[in-house]
Sequence to fold (577 residues):
Amino acid sequence: MEEDSSTDASDPVFGNNILIIHPGSYWIRIGRATDAYPVSVPHVVARKPKQNCDSKYEDKLIRSTTSHPNSNNQKQHALKMVQQAIWAKKTSSGQRRQSVALTEVINHNDEVKPQPLDENSGLTWTPTNHQSDCFIGEEALYLDPNEEYHIHWPIRQGRFNIHSGIGGSITAVLQDMETIWSKVIETKLDIPVKDLKSYKVILLIPDIYHRPHVKELMNLLLIRLGFGSAIVHQESVCALYGSGIPSACVVDVGDQKTSVSCVEDGLSNRNSRLCMGYGGGDVTRCFTSLLQRAHMPYRECQMEKTMDALLLVELKETFCHLDQDLDGIQLLDFHVRNPNSSTIMYQLKLGDETLQAPMGLFYPQLFGIVGEKMVKTQQRNQGDSEDIHDENYLLQTQQQAAKAKALEKAGAENNSNVEGAANTHRNTSPTNHHTEVIPTEAPPPTISRRISTSQSLDKPLGIDQAILHSIDCCSSEETKKKMYSCILVVGGGLGLFQGAVDMLQYRIQSKMPPSFRAVVDKVEVICKSKDMDPRLTVWKGGAVLSCLDTAQELWIKQKEWKSMGLKVLRERSPFVW
Fold:
Protein backbone atom coordinates (compact mmCIF):
# COMPACT_ATOMS: atom_id res chain seq x y z
CA MET A 1 0.00 0.00 0.00
CA GLU A 2 1.40 3.40 -0.97
CA GLU A 3 2.25 5.61 2.02
CA ASP A 4 0.36 8.88 2.29
CA SER A 5 3.03 11.62 2.20
CA SER A 6 0.60 14.14 3.68
CA THR A 7 0.94 12.52 7.09
CA ASP A 8 4.48 13.88 7.40
CA ALA A 9 3.22 17.47 7.42
CA SER A 10 0.83 16.77 10.28
CA ASP A 11 3.31 14.76 12.34
CA PRO A 12 4.66 17.08 15.04
CA VAL A 13 8.03 15.27 15.04
CA PHE A 14 8.80 16.47 11.53
CA GLY A 15 7.91 20.07 12.37
CA ASN A 16 6.99 21.13 8.83
CA ASN A 17 3.69 22.47 10.10
CA ILE A 18 5.05 24.04 13.30
CA LEU A 19 6.08 27.70 13.40
CA ILE A 20 8.28 29.21 16.11
CA ILE A 21 7.65 32.91 16.84
CA HIS A 22 10.06 34.89 19.01
CA PRO A 23 9.00 38.55 19.19
CA GLY A 24 11.40 41.12 20.61
CA SER A 25 11.83 44.86 21.01
CA TYR A 26 13.97 45.13 17.86
CA TRP A 27 13.59 41.84 15.96
CA ILE A 28 10.78 39.41 15.24
CA ARG A 29 12.12 35.94 14.45
CA ILE A 30 9.78 33.49 12.74
CA GLY A 31 10.47 30.17 11.08
CA ARG A 32 9.42 26.55 10.73
CA ALA A 33 10.71 24.14 13.34
CA THR A 34 12.58 22.36 10.53
CA ASP A 35 14.40 25.52 9.37
CA ALA A 36 18.09 25.89 10.20
CA TYR A 37 17.60 29.61 10.83
CA PRO A 38 14.55 31.82 11.37
CA VAL A 39 13.55 34.82 9.30
CA SER A 40 14.64 37.93 11.25
CA VAL A 41 12.78 41.15 10.50
CA PRO A 42 12.82 44.49 12.36
CA HIS A 43 9.69 44.43 14.54
CA VAL A 44 8.31 47.71 13.21
CA VAL A 45 5.36 48.88 11.13
CA ALA A 46 4.69 52.13 9.27
CA ARG A 47 1.05 53.16 8.78
CA LYS A 48 -0.48 55.85 6.61
CA PRO A 49 -2.17 58.43 8.89
CA LYS A 50 -5.88 58.98 8.69
CA GLN A 51 -7.04 62.09 6.86
CA ASN A 52 -8.11 63.89 10.02
CA CYS A 53 -4.73 63.30 11.72
CA ASP A 54 -2.60 66.42 11.87
CA SER A 55 0.58 65.17 13.53
CA LYS A 56 3.00 62.41 12.56
CA TYR A 57 3.95 59.90 15.29
CA GLU A 58 7.28 58.06 15.27
CA ASP A 59 8.82 55.63 17.76
CA LYS A 60 12.58 56.17 17.49
CA LEU A 61 14.86 53.25 16.69
CA ILE A 62 17.21 54.33 19.51
CA ARG A 63 15.20 55.59 22.46
CA SER A 64 16.22 58.88 24.03
CA THR A 65 16.19 59.33 27.78
CA THR A 66 14.14 62.08 29.35
CA SER A 67 16.16 65.13 30.22
CA HIS A 68 16.82 65.15 33.94
CA PRO A 69 19.10 67.56 35.83
CA ASN A 70 20.92 64.66 37.51
CA SER A 71 21.42 62.65 34.31
CA ASN A 72 24.71 64.24 33.19
CA ASN A 73 26.18 64.19 36.68
CA GLN A 74 25.28 60.52 36.99
CA LYS A 75 26.91 59.71 33.65
CA GLN A 76 30.09 61.58 34.52
CA HIS A 77 30.36 59.80 37.87
CA ALA A 78 29.71 56.43 36.24
CA LEU A 79 32.35 57.10 33.57
CA LYS A 80 34.96 57.59 36.30
CA MET A 81 33.89 54.26 37.85
CA VAL A 82 34.21 52.58 34.46
CA GLN A 83 37.70 54.01 33.93
CA GLN A 84 38.72 52.77 37.37
CA ALA A 85 37.33 49.29 36.61
CA ILE A 86 39.20 49.17 33.28
CA TRP A 87 42.43 50.13 35.02
CA ALA A 88 41.91 47.56 37.81
CA LYS A 89 41.61 44.56 35.44
CA LYS A 90 45.02 43.62 34.06
CA THR A 91 45.66 42.48 30.51
CA SER A 92 46.53 38.88 29.66
CA SER A 93 50.22 39.79 29.96
CA GLY A 94 49.69 41.05 33.52
CA GLN A 95 50.09 44.72 32.62
CA ARG A 96 47.78 47.65 33.25
CA ARG A 97 45.83 48.79 30.22
CA GLN A 98 47.25 51.93 28.64
CA SER A 99 44.64 54.68 28.42
CA VAL A 100 44.52 57.24 25.63
CA ALA A 101 44.35 61.00 26.23
CA LEU A 102 41.07 62.44 24.99
CA THR A 103 42.85 65.51 23.59
CA GLU A 104 44.91 63.33 21.26
CA VAL A 105 41.73 61.79 19.85
CA ILE A 106 39.94 65.14 19.48
CA ASN A 107 42.91 66.83 17.74
CA HIS A 108 43.00 64.12 15.09
CA ASN A 109 39.25 63.94 14.49
CA ASP A 110 38.97 67.72 14.13
CA GLU A 111 41.27 67.54 11.10
CA VAL A 112 39.43 64.71 9.30
CA LYS A 113 37.69 65.58 6.03
CA PRO A 114 34.96 63.50 4.34
CA GLN A 115 36.10 61.44 1.34
CA PRO A 116 33.40 60.86 -1.32
CA LEU A 117 33.53 57.39 -2.87
CA ASP A 118 30.85 55.91 -5.14
CA GLU A 119 28.36 58.36 -6.57
CA ASN A 120 25.54 55.96 -5.77
CA SER A 121 25.29 54.25 -2.39
CA GLY A 122 23.13 51.50 -3.87
CA LEU A 123 20.34 52.27 -1.40
CA THR A 124 16.91 53.59 -2.32
CA TRP A 125 13.91 54.78 -0.36
CA THR A 126 10.97 52.39 -0.13
CA PRO A 127 8.71 53.15 -3.13
CA THR A 128 5.25 54.35 -2.14
CA ASN A 129 3.79 54.84 -5.63
CA HIS A 130 1.19 52.14 -5.08
CA GLN A 131 -0.02 54.08 -2.04
CA SER A 132 0.22 51.15 0.36
CA ASP A 133 -1.39 51.80 3.73
CA CYS A 134 1.42 50.12 5.69
CA PHE A 135 4.95 48.76 5.47
CA ILE A 136 6.84 46.47 7.84
CA GLY A 137 10.45 45.67 8.69
CA GLU A 138 13.21 47.23 6.60
CA GLU A 139 10.65 48.72 4.20
CA ALA A 140 9.30 50.74 7.12
CA LEU A 141 12.80 51.82 8.18
CA TYR A 142 13.75 52.92 4.65
CA LEU A 143 10.75 55.16 4.09
CA ASP A 144 11.68 58.69 3.02
CA PRO A 145 11.49 60.89 6.17
CA ASN A 146 9.37 63.34 4.18
CA GLU A 147 6.67 60.70 3.71
CA GLU A 148 3.75 60.97 6.10
CA TYR A 149 3.70 57.63 7.96
CA HIS A 150 3.32 56.75 11.62
CA ILE A 151 6.17 54.51 12.81
CA HIS A 152 5.32 52.00 15.55
CA TRP A 153 7.47 49.44 17.40
CA PRO A 154 4.83 47.29 19.17
CA ILE A 155 7.22 45.97 21.85
CA ARG A 156 9.50 48.13 23.97
CA GLN A 157 11.65 46.74 26.82
CA GLY A 158 10.07 43.32 26.32
CA ARG A 159 6.49 44.54 26.92
CA PHE A 160 3.63 45.96 24.90
CA ASN A 161 4.50 49.50 23.85
CA ILE A 162 1.48 51.14 25.47
CA HIS A 163 1.60 54.94 25.65
CA SER A 164 -0.64 57.99 25.41
CA GLY A 165 0.35 58.88 21.84
CA ILE A 166 -1.09 57.78 18.50
CA GLY A 167 -1.26 53.96 18.26
CA GLY A 168 -0.42 53.49 21.92
CA SER A 169 -3.52 51.57 23.03
CA ILE A 170 -3.41 47.83 23.61
CA THR A 171 -5.82 47.36 20.68
CA ALA A 172 -3.49 49.26 18.35
CA VAL A 173 -0.42 47.35 19.59
CA LEU A 174 -2.10 44.00 18.92
CA GLN A 175 -3.18 45.21 15.48
CA ASP A 176 0.42 46.18 14.71
CA MET A 177 1.68 42.75 15.75
CA GLU A 178 -1.01 41.00 13.72
CA THR A 179 -0.01 43.05 10.66
CA ILE A 180 3.72 42.40 11.05
CA TRP A 181 3.44 38.70 11.86
CA SER A 182 0.94 37.92 9.10
CA LYS A 183 2.99 39.78 6.47
CA VAL A 184 6.20 37.98 7.49
CA ILE A 185 4.44 34.60 7.38
CA GLU A 186 2.96 35.31 3.96
CA THR A 187 5.90 37.04 2.25
CA LYS A 188 8.91 35.36 3.89
CA LEU A 189 7.59 31.86 4.64
CA ASP A 190 5.13 31.66 1.70
CA ILE A 191 2.29 30.49 3.94
CA PRO A 192 -1.13 32.06 3.24
CA VAL A 193 -2.79 33.22 6.46
CA LYS A 194 -5.95 31.32 5.50
CA ASP A 195 -3.95 28.06 5.74
CA LEU A 196 -2.73 28.66 9.32
CA LYS A 197 -5.57 26.53 10.68
CA SER A 198 -3.49 23.49 9.69
CA TYR A 199 -0.37 24.86 11.42
CA LYS A 200 0.79 24.83 15.02
CA VAL A 201 2.75 27.64 16.67
CA ILE A 202 5.12 27.99 19.62
CA LEU A 203 5.29 31.50 21.08
CA LEU A 204 8.33 32.46 23.15
CA ILE A 205 7.68 35.06 25.85
CA PRO A 206 9.91 36.83 28.43
CA ASP A 207 10.49 35.14 31.77
CA ILE A 208 8.81 38.02 33.57
CA TYR A 209 5.50 38.07 31.74
CA HIS A 210 2.31 40.07 32.14
CA ARG A 211 -0.55 37.57 32.28
CA PRO A 212 -3.22 39.77 30.62
CA HIS A 213 -0.83 40.35 27.70
CA VAL A 214 -0.13 36.62 27.33
CA LYS A 215 -3.88 36.09 27.16
CA GLU A 216 -4.14 38.71 24.38
CA LEU A 217 -1.29 37.04 22.49
CA MET A 218 -3.09 33.69 22.65
CA ASN A 219 -6.20 35.36 21.23
CA LEU A 220 -4.03 36.85 18.48
CA LEU A 221 -2.55 33.47 17.55
CA LEU A 222 -5.59 31.20 17.84
CA ILE A 223 -8.49 33.53 17.00
CA ARG A 224 -7.25 36.40 14.84
CA LEU A 225 -4.48 34.62 12.93
CA GLY A 226 -6.30 31.29 13.16
CA PHE A 227 -3.55 28.80 14.10
CA GLY A 228 -4.81 25.29 14.84
CA SER A 229 -3.02 25.03 18.19
CA ALA A 230 -0.35 26.81 20.23
CA ILE A 231 2.18 26.49 23.05
CA VAL A 232 3.55 29.40 25.09
CA HIS A 233 6.94 29.02 26.76
CA GLN A 234 9.55 31.16 28.48
CA GLU A 235 12.70 32.42 26.77
CA SER A 236 15.17 31.23 29.41
CA VAL A 237 13.98 27.62 29.36
CA CYS A 238 14.07 27.54 25.57
CA ALA A 239 17.58 29.02 25.69
CA LEU A 240 18.68 25.87 27.52
CA TYR A 241 16.88 23.65 25.01
CA GLY A 242 18.68 25.48 22.21
CA SER A 243 22.09 25.13 23.83
CA GLY A 244 21.68 21.57 25.08
CA ILE A 245 22.46 22.51 28.70
CA PRO A 246 20.34 21.01 31.54
CA SER A 247 20.78 23.80 34.12
CA ALA A 248 22.21 27.33 34.00
CA CYS A 249 21.82 30.93 35.03
CA VAL A 250 20.47 32.42 31.79
CA VAL A 251 21.38 36.02 30.97
CA ASP A 252 19.38 37.40 28.03
CA VAL A 253 20.64 40.79 26.85
CA GLY A 254 18.33 42.19 24.19
CA ASP A 255 18.06 45.59 22.58
CA GLN A 256 16.10 47.25 25.39
CA LYS A 257 15.98 44.81 28.29
CA THR A 258 18.29 42.45 30.15
CA SER A 259 16.75 39.52 31.97
CA VAL A 260 18.35 37.01 34.35
CA SER A 261 16.81 33.74 35.47
CA CYS A 262 18.08 30.54 37.06
CA VAL A 263 16.77 27.49 35.21
CA GLU A 264 17.02 23.94 36.50
CA ASP A 265 15.54 20.83 34.91
CA GLY A 266 13.28 22.76 32.55
CA LEU A 267 11.85 25.18 35.13
CA SER A 268 12.68 28.84 35.69
CA ASN A 269 13.02 29.66 39.38
CA ARG A 270 10.35 32.28 39.92
CA ASN A 271 12.19 34.05 42.75
CA SER A 272 15.39 34.33 40.69
CA ARG A 273 13.85 36.28 37.80
CA LEU A 274 15.03 39.85 37.26
CA CYS A 275 14.49 42.20 34.35
CA MET A 276 16.55 45.38 33.93
CA GLY A 277 15.36 48.20 31.69
CA TYR A 278 18.50 48.52 29.59
CA GLY A 279 20.15 46.61 26.75
CA GLY A 280 22.17 46.84 23.55
CA GLY A 281 20.27 49.92 22.39
CA ASP A 282 21.47 51.79 25.46
CA VAL A 283 25.07 50.78 24.65
CA THR A 284 24.52 52.32 21.20
CA ARG A 285 23.22 55.52 22.75
CA CYS A 286 26.12 55.65 25.21
CA PHE A 287 28.64 55.02 22.39
CA THR A 288 27.04 57.85 20.41
CA SER A 289 27.60 60.32 23.25
CA LEU A 290 31.22 59.15 23.57
CA LEU A 291 31.70 59.59 19.80
CA GLN A 292 30.36 63.13 20.06
CA ARG A 293 32.70 63.83 22.96
CA ALA A 294 35.58 62.60 20.77
CA HIS A 295 34.46 64.99 17.97
CA MET A 296 33.27 62.35 15.53
CA PRO A 297 34.08 63.73 12.04
CA TYR A 298 30.59 62.91 10.68
CA ARG A 299 29.17 65.94 12.44
CA GLU A 300 25.77 65.86 10.78
CA CYS A 301 25.00 62.56 12.51
CA GLN A 302 21.78 62.70 14.53
CA MET A 303 20.58 59.74 16.55
CA GLU A 304 16.95 60.77 15.97
CA LYS A 305 17.28 60.13 12.21
CA THR A 306 16.62 56.51 11.26
CA MET A 307 19.49 56.25 8.73
CA ASP A 308 21.97 57.67 11.23
CA ALA A 309 20.59 55.42 13.98
CA LEU A 310 21.19 52.37 11.77
CA LEU A 311 24.75 53.61 11.15
CA LEU A 312 25.38 54.03 14.89
CA VAL A 313 24.15 50.50 15.58
CA GLU A 314 26.55 49.24 12.90
CA LEU A 315 29.46 51.23 14.38
CA LYS A 316 28.76 49.83 17.85
CA GLU A 317 28.62 46.25 16.58
CA THR A 318 31.81 46.73 14.53
CA PHE A 319 34.05 48.71 16.87
CA CYS A 320 32.94 48.09 20.47
CA HIS A 321 34.46 45.28 22.54
CA LEU A 322 35.23 44.10 26.09
CA ASP A 323 38.79 42.96 25.44
CA GLN A 324 41.32 44.50 27.84
CA ASP A 325 44.18 43.61 25.47
CA LEU A 326 42.89 45.99 22.79
CA ASP A 327 44.37 49.25 24.01
CA GLY A 328 46.01 52.31 22.57
CA ILE A 329 44.92 54.45 19.63
CA GLN A 330 42.61 52.84 17.09
CA LEU A 331 42.47 54.28 13.59
CA LEU A 332 39.13 53.25 12.08
CA ASP A 333 37.27 53.79 8.82
CA PHE A 334 33.52 53.87 8.29
CA HIS A 335 31.19 54.60 5.41
CA VAL A 336 28.06 56.75 5.47
CA ARG A 337 25.39 55.57 3.03
CA ASN A 338 22.05 57.25 2.51
CA PRO A 339 19.47 56.34 -0.13
CA ASN A 340 19.88 58.13 -3.48
CA SER A 341 23.15 59.70 -2.30
CA SER A 342 26.86 59.11 -2.73
CA THR A 343 28.88 57.01 -0.29
CA ILE A 344 31.18 59.02 1.97
CA MET A 345 34.10 57.59 3.91
CA TYR A 346 35.40 59.00 7.18
CA GLN A 347 38.52 58.19 9.15
CA LEU A 348 38.07 58.10 12.92
CA LYS A 349 40.53 57.89 15.78
CA LEU A 350 39.30 56.43 19.08
CA GLY A 351 40.83 55.39 22.39
CA ASP A 352 38.96 53.91 25.34
CA GLU A 353 35.50 54.77 23.97
CA THR A 354 35.09 51.37 22.30
CA LEU A 355 35.49 49.64 25.67
CA GLN A 356 33.77 52.21 27.86
CA ALA A 357 30.37 52.00 26.10
CA PRO A 358 29.74 48.24 26.59
CA MET A 359 31.05 48.53 30.16
CA GLY A 360 27.80 50.42 30.76
CA LEU A 361 26.13 47.00 31.01
CA PHE A 362 28.04 46.57 34.28
CA TYR A 363 27.61 50.23 35.29
CA PRO A 364 24.10 51.14 34.02
CA GLN A 365 24.34 54.60 35.60
CA LEU A 366 26.46 55.38 32.52
CA PHE A 367 23.25 55.29 30.44
CA GLY A 368 21.93 58.32 32.32
CA ILE A 369 18.47 56.84 32.93
CA VAL A 370 16.94 58.74 35.84
CA GLY A 371 13.40 58.51 37.21
CA GLU A 372 12.54 55.09 35.75
CA LYS A 373 12.14 51.80 37.62
CA MET A 374 15.17 49.90 36.38
CA VAL A 375 14.58 46.48 37.95
CA LYS A 376 11.38 44.43 37.59
CA THR A 377 10.41 41.12 39.18
CA GLN A 378 7.52 38.70 38.65
CA GLN A 379 4.34 40.23 40.06
CA ARG A 380 1.55 38.43 41.86
CA ASN A 381 -1.37 37.13 39.86
CA GLN A 382 -4.14 39.74 39.99
CA GLY A 383 -6.73 37.21 38.86
CA ASP A 384 -9.01 37.06 35.83
CA SER A 385 -12.77 36.70 35.73
CA GLU A 386 -12.37 34.13 32.95
CA ASP A 387 -10.45 31.76 35.24
CA ILE A 388 -12.12 31.71 38.65
CA HIS A 389 -10.22 28.61 39.80
CA ASP A 390 -6.78 30.20 39.52
CA GLU A 391 -4.01 30.22 42.13
CA ASN A 392 -5.83 32.84 44.21
CA TYR A 393 -8.82 30.49 44.44
CA LEU A 394 -6.53 27.59 45.41
CA LEU A 395 -4.91 29.66 48.14
CA GLN A 396 -8.30 30.67 49.55
CA THR A 397 -9.63 27.11 49.55
CA GLN A 398 -6.46 25.85 51.25
CA GLN A 399 -6.79 28.51 53.93
CA GLN A 400 -10.48 27.68 54.41
CA ALA A 401 -9.65 23.98 54.67
CA ALA A 402 -6.95 24.73 57.23
CA LYS A 403 -9.41 26.81 59.29
CA ALA A 404 -12.08 24.09 59.09
CA LYS A 405 -9.55 21.52 60.25
CA ALA A 406 -8.56 23.75 63.15
CA LEU A 407 -12.24 24.22 64.09
CA GLU A 408 -12.80 20.47 63.97
CA LYS A 409 -9.80 19.88 66.17
CA ALA A 410 -10.96 22.56 68.58
CA GLY A 411 -14.42 21.03 68.74
CA ALA A 412 -13.01 17.60 69.49
CA GLU A 413 -10.87 19.01 72.30
CA ASN A 414 -13.86 20.90 73.72
CA ASN A 415 -16.00 17.76 73.75
CA SER A 416 -13.23 15.94 75.57
CA ASN A 417 -12.99 18.76 78.12
CA VAL A 418 -16.78 18.77 78.70
CA GLU A 419 -16.77 15.03 79.38
CA GLY A 420 -13.92 15.44 81.82
CA ALA A 421 -15.75 18.25 83.62
CA ALA A 422 -18.87 16.10 84.06
CA ASN A 423 -16.85 13.34 85.68
CA THR A 424 -15.17 15.68 88.16
CA HIS A 425 -18.30 17.83 88.74
CA ARG A 426 -16.61 20.87 87.26
CA ASN A 427 -18.45 23.25 84.97
CA THR A 428 -16.08 24.41 82.18
CA SER A 429 -17.27 26.68 79.41
CA PRO A 430 -16.65 25.11 75.96
CA THR A 431 -16.97 28.54 74.37
CA ASN A 432 -13.84 29.84 76.07
CA HIS A 433 -11.89 26.76 75.05
CA HIS A 434 -13.15 27.14 71.51
CA THR A 435 -11.83 30.69 71.33
CA GLU A 436 -8.41 29.76 72.68
CA VAL A 437 -7.78 26.78 70.38
CA ILE A 438 -8.59 28.40 67.03
CA PRO A 439 -5.34 29.80 65.60
CA THR A 440 -5.36 33.50 64.81
CA GLU A 441 -3.68 32.81 61.45
CA ALA A 442 -4.14 29.83 59.16
CA PRO A 443 -1.05 27.70 58.51
CA PRO A 444 0.83 28.50 55.30
CA PRO A 445 -0.74 27.00 52.17
CA THR A 446 0.77 24.00 50.43
CA ILE A 447 1.36 25.97 47.24
CA SER A 448 3.77 28.79 48.03
CA ARG A 449 3.53 32.00 46.04
CA ARG A 450 6.35 33.85 47.79
CA ILE A 451 7.77 36.67 45.77
CA SER A 452 11.48 37.38 46.12
CA THR A 453 12.50 40.35 48.25
CA SER A 454 14.12 41.71 45.07
CA GLN A 455 10.77 43.38 44.45
CA SER A 456 12.04 46.23 46.60
CA LEU A 457 15.09 46.81 44.40
CA ASP A 458 15.13 50.46 43.35
CA LYS A 459 18.69 51.06 42.19
CA PRO A 460 19.87 49.88 38.76
CA LEU A 461 21.85 46.64 38.83
CA GLY A 462 24.73 45.85 36.53
CA ILE A 463 24.65 42.46 34.81
CA ASP A 464 27.18 40.98 37.23
CA GLN A 465 25.22 42.24 40.27
CA ALA A 466 21.96 40.91 38.80
CA ILE A 467 23.50 37.46 38.28
CA LEU A 468 24.78 37.34 41.86
CA HIS A 469 21.38 38.45 43.20
CA SER A 470 19.49 35.96 41.02
CA ILE A 471 21.66 33.03 42.09
CA ASP A 472 21.38 34.07 45.74
CA CYS A 473 17.58 33.73 45.44
CA CYS A 474 17.85 30.00 44.67
CA SER A 475 16.65 27.76 47.47
CA SER A 476 19.53 25.31 47.94
CA GLU A 477 23.30 25.57 48.11
CA GLU A 478 23.61 22.78 45.52
CA THR A 479 21.48 24.73 43.04
CA LYS A 480 23.53 27.88 43.60
CA LYS A 481 26.69 25.91 42.92
CA LYS A 482 25.20 24.67 39.63
CA MET A 483 24.29 28.20 38.60
CA TYR A 484 27.77 29.60 39.32
CA SER A 485 29.26 26.72 37.32
CA CYS A 486 27.26 27.58 34.18
CA ILE A 487 26.20 31.07 33.08
CA LEU A 488 24.60 31.11 29.63
CA VAL A 489 24.51 34.44 27.78
CA VAL A 490 22.00 34.81 24.92
CA GLY A 491 20.72 37.73 22.86
CA GLY A 492 22.78 40.20 20.85
CA GLY A 493 23.42 42.88 23.47
CA LEU A 494 26.47 41.34 25.17
CA GLY A 495 27.57 37.99 23.75
CA LEU A 496 28.73 39.38 20.40
CA PHE A 497 31.36 41.68 21.95
CA GLN A 498 34.91 40.35 21.77
CA GLY A 499 36.12 39.60 25.30
CA ALA A 500 32.63 39.34 26.79
CA VAL A 501 33.27 35.86 28.23
CA ASP A 502 36.48 36.82 30.03
CA MET A 503 35.06 40.10 31.33
CA LEU A 504 31.89 38.56 32.77
CA GLN A 505 33.81 35.60 34.16
CA TYR A 506 36.31 37.91 35.88
CA ARG A 507 33.61 40.10 37.44
CA ILE A 508 31.52 37.18 38.73
CA GLN A 509 34.57 35.34 40.06
CA SER A 510 35.79 38.40 41.96
CA LYS A 511 32.38 39.24 43.48
CA MET A 512 30.90 35.83 44.28
CA PRO A 513 30.62 34.91 47.99
CA PRO A 514 33.84 33.42 49.44
CA SER A 515 31.95 30.29 50.53
CA PHE A 516 31.36 29.38 46.88
CA ARG A 517 34.87 30.18 45.65
CA ALA A 518 36.10 27.13 47.51
CA VAL A 519 33.51 24.72 46.06
CA VAL A 520 33.06 26.09 42.50
CA ASP A 521 36.02 24.98 40.43
CA LYS A 522 35.38 27.47 37.64
CA VAL A 523 32.77 30.05 36.75
CA GLU A 524 31.98 29.00 33.20
CA VAL A 525 30.43 31.65 30.95
CA ILE A 526 29.00 30.49 27.62
CA CYS A 527 28.20 33.10 24.97
CA LYS A 528 28.15 31.00 21.80
CA SER A 529 26.85 27.56 22.68
CA LYS A 530 27.60 25.09 19.86
CA ASP A 531 29.17 28.05 17.97
CA MET A 532 25.65 29.37 17.45
CA ASP A 533 24.75 33.03 17.09
CA PRO A 534 23.52 33.91 20.62
CA ARG A 535 20.69 35.92 19.06
CA LEU A 536 19.18 32.70 17.71
CA THR A 537 19.63 30.40 20.71
CA VAL A 538 16.17 31.03 22.17
CA TRP A 539 14.43 30.55 18.81
CA LYS A 540 16.37 27.34 18.23
CA GLY A 541 15.23 26.13 21.64
CA GLY A 542 11.63 26.60 20.56
CA ALA A 543 12.31 24.36 17.56
CA VAL A 544 13.83 21.71 19.86
CA LEU A 545 10.80 21.96 22.18
CA SER A 546 8.45 21.16 19.30
CA CYS A 547 10.17 17.78 18.85
CA LEU A 548 10.06 16.69 22.49
CA ASP A 549 7.60 13.94 23.41
CA THR A 550 6.66 15.80 26.58
CA ALA A 551 5.59 18.83 24.51
CA GLN A 552 2.81 16.93 22.76
CA GLU A 553 0.62 17.22 25.86
CA LEU A 554 1.04 21.01 25.98
CA TRP A 555 -0.70 21.98 22.74
CA ILE A 556 -3.78 24.15 23.22
CA LYS A 557 -6.17 23.69 20.34
CA GLN A 558 -8.22 26.52 18.91
CA LYS A 559 -11.50 24.88 19.95
CA GLU A 560 -10.25 24.40 23.52
CA TRP A 561 -9.19 28.03 23.74
CA LYS A 562 -12.57 29.22 22.49
CA SER A 563 -14.46 27.07 25.00
CA MET A 564 -12.23 27.23 28.11
CA GLY A 565 -10.01 30.27 27.59
CA LEU A 566 -7.48 31.12 30.26
CA LYS A 567 -8.25 28.02 32.29
CA VAL A 568 -6.74 25.72 29.67
CA LEU A 569 -3.63 27.93 29.44
CA ARG A 570 -3.09 27.66 33.20
CA GLU A 571 -3.56 23.88 33.11
CA ARG A 572 -1.33 23.26 30.07
CA SER A 573 1.31 25.89 30.73
CA PRO A 574 4.80 24.31 30.91
CA PHE A 575 5.74 26.85 33.59
CA VAL A 576 4.01 27.79 36.85
CA TRP A 577 1.27 30.17 35.71
Q: What stands out?
A: The first strand starts at residue 18 and ends at 23. The longest helix spans residues 391-423. Confidence is low (pLDDT under 50) at residues 1-13, 425-456. The CA atoms of residues 396 and 445 lie 9 Å apart.
